[in-house]
TrEMBL record, chain A:
It is a multi-pass membrane protein. The chain crosses the membrane at residues 44-69, 107-125, 137-157, 163-190, 210-233, 239-256. Its main location: membrane. This is ATP synthase subunit a. CDD domains: ATP-synt_Fo_a_6. Key component of the proton channel; it plays a direct role in the translocation of protons across the membrane. Belongs to the ATPase A chain family. One of its GO terms (molecular function) is proton-transporting ATP synthase activity, rotational mechanism. Keywords: ATP synthesis, Cell membrane, CF(0), Hydrogen ion transport, Ion transport, Membrane, Transmembrane, Transmembrane helix, Transport. It comes from the Bacteria. It is found in: Cell membrane; Membrane.
Automatic annotation (TrEMBL), chain B:
This is ATP synthase subunit b. InterPro entries: ATP_synth_b/b'su_bac/chlpt, ATP_synthase_B_chain. It comes from Salipiger aestuarii. F(1)F(0) ATP synthase produces ATP from ADP in the presence of a proton or sodium gradient. F-type ATPases consist of two structural domains, F(1) containing the extramembraneous catalytic core and F(0) containing the membrane proton channel, linked together by a central stalk and a peripheral stalk. During catalysis, ATP synthesis in the catalytic domain of F(1) is coupled via a rotary mechanism of the central stalk subunits to proton translocation. It is found in: Cell membrane; Endomembrane system.
Amino acid sequence: MATETAHGAEMADHGAGQAEQASGLVFHPMDQFIVKPLFGHGDVGMFTITNVTLWLGLAILAIFALMVLGTSRRAIVPSRSQSVAELAYGFIYKMIEDVTGKDGLRYFPYIMTLFMFIVTANFLGLVPMSFTTTSHFAVTIVLALAVFLTVTILGFVKNGPSFLSLFWVSSAPLALRPILAIIEIISYFVRPVSHSIRLAGNVMAGHAVLKVFAGFAAVAAVSPLTIVAITAIYGLEVLVAFIQAYVFTILTCVYLKDALHPHH
Amino acid sequence: MATTQLAEDLPGICVDDHGSAIGMPQLCADWVPNQIFWLVITLVVIFFILSRIALPRIASVVAERTGTITNDIAAAEELKRQAGEAEKDYDRALADARAQAQAIGQQTRDDIKAQLDTAVADADAKIAAKTAESEAAIDEIRASSVANIEIVAKDTALAIVAALGATADQETVSRAVDSRMKG
């Protein structure tokens, strides 16, 4: 409902810019995702310093603060920040060990990098007026493709041609195997798509809904309700920010397991 | 390059005159190279921060903590064992002391009993001696009293005979008294 209204408002916007200002209801739920240069008003080239640069940089700083400055005392009895850093470490370490097995621990730094980046970027995106880097498909597709290519190459390097047995379900009846193989191959190549769209879609949808509700807050009659709704959705978004990072990471572990142990 | 040229001419393919997004900004191809470029740099930086500094540090801290905990538990086990041994020693010493005390008590009791027995025997001997002595004295007294009574009886009998007016020689009276006293 809300998105439909938003859509209507957008249409009106394109139709007549003046009419929108008169009505009082202004919906620009997607404006928060615009990439713009930090300095000046030029176009966005490959190396332009944009709001993307700013928020990616802040993600680096946040990770550095937590994982390096937070653990700088190397205390046996950890401080709060060191506890959080160790919690993140143990969380991912255990996840790889459980999902992928001991031999997956070689890739721990790579998976940790993915998780820390996504979870930090998601939470930074929840700061009001911020730009959410993980809401862009350009970002998540790079992450998902990196996982997909790494896993595929690793699978062939580790197992040789027998990596293809991933698609040959030997536990199924022989007649079904070719059909299953086609399904498996399709699902394998759909992986990076679902992997990336799941993350960006969840983050983008939540942020857009927040903006739509914020637009309704301009109407005095419904603004208390709207503010309650925004608060509730914000809470949900905090959950989504973590869960999507978790899901992305655990799927990476599952794909890695396929590369290391392709036999069903 | 072509897109750059286009973007300069127009207000922007993805943004309208008012600065609002046209459609989904996520699908704006103009911005993709910029995002990918900065993302790759970010990921590389994060990877080096984590793999060079953060992760080895946390791993060492965790390992150190595990080591410390293991050592502490081992030390605690050792101390517990020592405490158990000390308790056993204490129990043994206590039992020894108790047995010794009992032995000493018994010995003392025996000594006292022996002394007591000796003393009782001494006392008995003394009492027997005293009794014998007393009996001897009593016999002597009795004998002397019998002799005295004889003399008195003879004198009395002589006097009585004289008083009755008969003459009696001493010999006859004496014999008669003797025979009477024996009878």
